[in-house]
Amino acid sequence: MRKFIRVIILITTAAASALIGAYVGVQIASSSFPYEAPEMQISTSTSGSQQNGKISISSTDISTTITEVVERVEPAVVTVVGEIPGQRTFFGIVGEQQVSGSGFIITSDGYIITNNHVVEDVDNIFVVLSGGTQAPAQVVSRDVFSDLAVLKVEGDMPAVVTMGNSDLLKPGETVIAIGSPLGTFRNSVTSGVVSATGRGFPSGRGYNLENLIQTDAAINSGNSGGPLINLAGEVIGVNTLVIRGNNNAASAEGLGFAIPSNTARLISEQIVAQGYFARPYLGVSVQPVNPSTAERYNLPVEWGAYVTDVGANTPAEGAGIQAGDIIVRIGNQAISEDIRFINALFSYTPGDTVEIEILRQGGREVLQATLVEIR
Question: I need a labelling partner for 203 at 20 to 30 A (CA). Which of 35, 44, 173, 345 fits?
């Protein structure tokens, strides 16, 4: 019992000593190392747009080559608007319809280039300048085979474009299209690259649109006649059509085409100078020969132009061409899948004397014809 009481006393004494020592240690530490908790700071800072609760607004003026080109050329781009007259149909009279396209000013006295299909069979034509001013326009002349037309408006012009050399274009070159898609979104800007040059496309009228520029810059309905521009601010093409596919073909995007500026300049300069563009005239009516017709009618050649009629007092009559002949070559242009009769003929000018190679009764003959002018 005595031993047990001694053990209890020892344990109690040790515990009391430990508690007293701990208390003394805490007091000493508190007096030697005073500590004060910091005041909490709440920050509303965010990265970039807001600092210390304040919104930062940038007024940086970003200018690029494209924006500079657009600022320079856009004032010379116009919207071309006209009316298709009402027509009587099986279902009654169809009222007038308003159609629109684009164009651009080429001279300070108001000559404007657009597409032929924009103004063909259209009345009451007017243009909307970049600032919104409307001005009546007259068709000076049209060239169906290149799909080009020249208009004339009176008054002060806001700007004039610079025509570039389309022969220098290379695939991959950046280009800009300006026009009025759907006739509503005036002077819209799209950009892309030259996808290819020298493209041909059937017009649906028996000839090809030749030497076209292919681009992936967006070209929509209403862009027709607007300029295609390089990064030097020069017009290097006239936007004319876009292909999106049909029910028998896969859909496509980025297949726009433009008439080369060199073609547009040649034709427009002649129209401005003399009021019309002269095409060469041979004086024959023809039907195209292709592999299908050649097989059906057992013709001796797959490509050519079958002569159905020869006009009196024409170059063809003077050269000795007869109905039933098949024209296979005009000058150095052989008629083929890529070169139609009209395109071969139109590679020459009025006054040129050219060779006309024909097939007649199984034999080949080469005749000489001097082309004349037709408007």
Answer: 173
Spell out the domains of the chain, with CATH numbers in brackets. Answer: 67-152 (2.40.10.10), 162-274 (2.40.10.10), 279-374 (2.30.42.10)
Q: What is the pLDDT of residues 33-85, one digit of tens each?
A: 444 444 444 434 344 455 567 777 776 666 688 999 999 999 999 999 998 87
Q: Which amino acid is at 41?
A: Q
Would you say 267 and 146 are in contact if contact means Cβ atoms under 8 Å apart? yes
Helix, strand, or coil here: 188?
Answer: strand
Angle CA 303–287–149, to nearest 5: 100
Residue type, 37: A
CB 349 within 8 A of CB 330: no
Give catalytic residue positions: 117, 147, 224
pTM of the predicted protein model: 0.73
End-to-end CA distance of the chain: 143
Q: In this predicted model, what pLDDT tens digit does every residue of 125-154 receive, in sequence order?
A: 999 998 899 999 999 999 998 999 999 999
Cα torsion 117, 121, 126, 128 to 10°: value is: -30
